[in-house]
Amino acid sequence: MKRGSCLDVYEYFKEKILNGDLKAGEKLPSLRQISIKKGLNTTTVLKGYEMLESEGYIFKVLGKGSFVSENRDFSINLDNRLILERALITEEEKKNLIDFSKDEIDSIKLIGLDLRNIMLKVLVLNDDIFEEENLKGSKDLRDTIADHLEDSDIFISSGEIVVLNSSQQCLNTVLKLFFKKKGERTIVVSDPTKYKALNLFKERAIVNGIHLLEDGWDFKDFEEVLKNSKIDFVYESFNYQNPSGIVWSSEKKEKLLKLAQEYDFYIIEEDNSSDFYYLEEKPKSLKSYDRAGRERVFYIKDLAKCIHKEMKISYMIVPPIFRERLDFEVLNSEITPSNFTQKTLEYLIKNGIYEESLAKIREKIKEQYEYMIERLKKIEGVRLMHSPGGGRSIWIKLNKDIDEKEFYYLCKKNGVSFLPGTIFYWDKRVDSKIRLSFVGLKKDEIEKGLNIIENAIKEINNKVL
Asked: What share of the chain in percent tops pLDDT 70?
């Protein structure tokens, strides 16, 4: 153990368990013993033990201590571990970490958006700011969103919009509505796809993955699934797909809607990246192809992803046939954002600040995107899976001789974090791919981080040789 963090405690004992130094049933040293021996405080050691326990490496016996779990498949549950790590990491540890895993926008730091003064204006202008929220969200905000969507060729009434806290809540609300029992519904996703969505789907549904080509799904693959089983939903981000960065072609978007009518399934579109286009025009959402009277798309957009991570506001457009059922689900959940947050967003959109800020953000991020693409091309042993021309991250493949998990831990040890590819696949395959986000980093941080990644590749390649 070197740096004295809970992650170091976790990795130290995990390695001892995996290489057989600690056997099943063997007792781990007490928190006090480790804290004295390694010069750590007991809270740090406790957090490390909690991480080991959460992934099944150890178990606790009240009054007796912690013990190594019985022998089993210890394939790492990276998605759960990453979520836990981010929750436990200290502010001090963040200072020493170059984090390629975050894809959240901070418009205050990035473009100097004076969000504080905007919020003060909103407080002054609205006497009803602390009144009870409308079930579906503020009527004024929903009217504003509906007007704003016309610029994206989406023509709907405000009654079709539901305002919630996050895109994950929108997605969870749809799933709770339709997926009452585990395994009774089937959902089809891209292979790979957003890992948080995958976690939700696996809890409730049968999941099928479809191979992604440069312009969208391999429809031969998808039509084979349609012939052999009844599917209920498709989930996808059609523009700058997470994690691949792929933009579906207009032809494939229209074909998917046609198949939805023919085979009677619905489509959940999570459209959180289409505003981040750098080298071309803004791509059209699938929802813009959805025809009135034949609606098949549940459209989800997380506005916090576009402006500021702390705004905590999203909206969803639902096909009219499901409107009442979804309203009832929202009523039971009580997950509408505060009036203050809604009024702030309404002010940003109505006064042109929202679009103006997005334009400035794109300009800033474009520089980071182009710099990162060119730098990655110079790293031997790295292949760009796709040069997206937009989005917030880049999907790369490492040399096949590099073990994805070993590489992840080596980079983490040296101060770089990213999202390993295995968490984006429904079958958790290990395919030597990683996702690198660039929106939260400065050029010098990107350079330093990629240098660490390049050196890690060389170190592993030297071992192989």
From this structure: 91
